[in-house]
Design brief:
Layout lengths: L3 E5 L2 E6 L2 H14 L1 H10 L1 H9 L2 H7 L5 H10 L35
Antiparallel strand pairs: 1-2
Amino acid sequence: MDAFEFKRYNNTIATAKNLDELKDQMEKFRNSDPSLVNWHLEQGHIQKWLEYAGYRDAAEKLNGVKSVDEALRVLSSSTTRSRSAGAGRGGQMGMGKGRKGNGPMKPGSQKR
């Protein structure tokens, strides 16, 4: 499974391989660069990656969330700690590797 990439102007700033790492990175950016997380939330990148990674409940709870503070509140109150069965397989939800050919971009890889 691909890690979520926090990006700014196509440069990867940080990555997260699971829900706990995602929350840790969001917490760090809450103080240093909240606009980075807010942008990924507004664009739906974090929600798409969570769904791709099998954290469907967490992804649904973040729908409509636009700020890092609210996202952390939602994720902290979430009891969703485990992934759904079969999650994280390459290609699930159309999330392919890279941009060769006509495949979709993975969440968080869009230019800003």
